Amino acid sequence: MSRRIAVVSAGLSDPSSTRMLADKLVQAVFEALDDRGVEREARVFELRDVAHDITNNLMTGFAPKALAEMNDYVAKADALIAVTPIFSTSYSGLFKSWIDVLDRDAIEGTPVLLGATAGTARHSLAIDYAMRPLFTYLHAEPISTGVFAASSDWGAEADSVAPLQKRIDRAAGELADRLSGSSAAQKTDPFAPEAYLAGGSSFEDLLTKLPSRG
Length: 214
Known about the structure:
This is FMN reductase. The protein is of the alpha/beta class.
């Protein structure tokens, strides 16, 4: 079964570093899924292409065709990659406006890879204090690693301590694990009662084997 990935970029310029990051993320996820033998497909949506539609939806309560088709793809996707520029320490107004017109249960249970861009690394925590709570509120399931890219992460002056591609590959691997069914969340908890039973001993049996305190 092919896994469907929706990619949403909230970049405003053309080209934009936000779209560049989105493209790198989906490419890395594709490569990670290929390594796991999982078929995949994706569509990339630029919010600036439907900015007027989003405004109209906010004012009228009805989504124009292009926006409705985009939101339908997102709702039916197996995973979402969401990337936004950071303005004034948080996600962009366009990005939030899109979230506001998205059906409340559209991405419930959907694994989400979060990405963000900004001119300076001072905004690197925005993924965790702004984006992650937003998607958690929508009952989506953001993966552990978010990817932030500052201007210094691109080109010859890229940070040699934690290079952007390394962070991208780590996040892509986590999302691919979720989509391939091999995530850590699905592994057996060694402290769960069923883990003891699988080993042939009941929880009560294990208690009787504990050394006594004399």
